[in-house]
Amino acid sequence: MILIADSGSTKTDWAIVTSGQEPVVINTQGINPVHQSREEIVRILREEFGTKMTEDPDVRRLKSSNILTPQFPYAVYFYGSGVRPEMESLMTSLLRETFPQADVIEAHSDLLGAARALCGRNCGIASILGTGANSCLYDGEKIIQHTPALGYIIGDEGSGAALGKRFVHDLYGGVLSEEIKTAFEAETKLSLPEIINRVYRQPLANRFLASLSVFIQDHIGDAGVHKVVVDNFIDFLDYHIAPYQRKDLPVSFIGSVAFHYQEQLREAAERLGYTIGTVYGSPLAALIRFHTRGME
């Protein structure tokens, strides 16, 4: 019986994996040791996770069938944003406080989680394209090279935030058509002053910019919008993948942006001579397969 967590800054998905049963997934708020205090993380683990373990009907079914024993879990694998190498020991110790019965506890970055989910135990290039962007070269066991994630102001090419930024730039810079501009303002109820306010004067500008992807995806048939998306991916490949100098390896992706724009992603890759491998919206199912290989 093992517990696998895929954690972002907003939400954590916890997969309860028992032999012979379908995994049960419960959710808590996100855990990020960079932005949250030790006390806040402990509260989430003990109170919020504990409440879900008590109240979730699927978990209660496992308990009533004596499938989920008091010894659960014997292993915990936690992958999260903010779990940088210098944060791994802290996150591991917090998990140890919550799950003292576990024989194995590991805490790793979401990037290693993506690599394990996408590449398994094979060499490859793993990438995350969601609100933000990240990538690494993976040797089948560990990350051996990665380009730094510089955030949406300096970097994050290919991400949802970068896509939204490029779209707004081209929309109000006269690159995109007046028809698209009219449709955008009518459908989103946004104007340029409101966008400026949301980006420069309100928090979480990266999430706001990424949210414009809804309109972009709905209008992907427009040639100008299509070009914005493809160019965003070309930037990602140029800045984040080219430094590895490994066009012999497939480039695989996890994240909503990669998943929903697969056609444009493959077009960008073909232009630059890259091969797209696996594309998942979420890593959790693949991480379950990675950690349960050989489980009876």
Task: Explain how this protein is built.
- Strand 7 (133-138) and strand 8 form a beta hairpin.
- This protein has a five-stranded mixed sheet, with helices on both faces.
- The radius of gyration is 21 Å and the shape is globular.
- The chain is α/β, with parallel strands linked by helices and 296 residues long.
- It has 14 helices and ten strands.
- The model has no long low-confidence stretch (mean pLDDT 91).
- Helix 4 (110-119) crosses helix 14 (284-292).
- The percentage helix is 40-55%
Largest sheet: spatial strand order = 3-2-1-4-5
Q: Helix tally?
A: 14
The end-to-end span amounts to 10 Å
Average residue pLDDT: 91
Biggest sheet overview: 5 strands, mixed
Unreliable runs, pLDDT <50, ≥5 residues? none
Helix and strand succession?
EEEHHEHEHEEEHHHHHHHEHHEH
Would you tell me the structural class of the helices and strands?
Answer: alpha/beta
Strand % is 15-25%
In total, the number of strands is 10
Shape: globular
Cα gyration radius (Å): 21 Å
Strands, helices and their partners?
Layout: E1 2-7, E2 11-17, E3 24-29, H1 38-55, H2 57-64, E4 75-80, H3 88-98, E5 104-109, H4 110-119, E6 124-129, E7 133-138, E8 143-145, H5 151-154, H6 160-172, H7 178-188, H8 192-200, H9 205-211, H10 213-218, H11 223-241, E9 251-254, H12 256-260, H13 262-272, E10 276-280, H14 284-292
Helix pairs in contact: 1-3, 4-14, 6-9, 6-11, 11-13
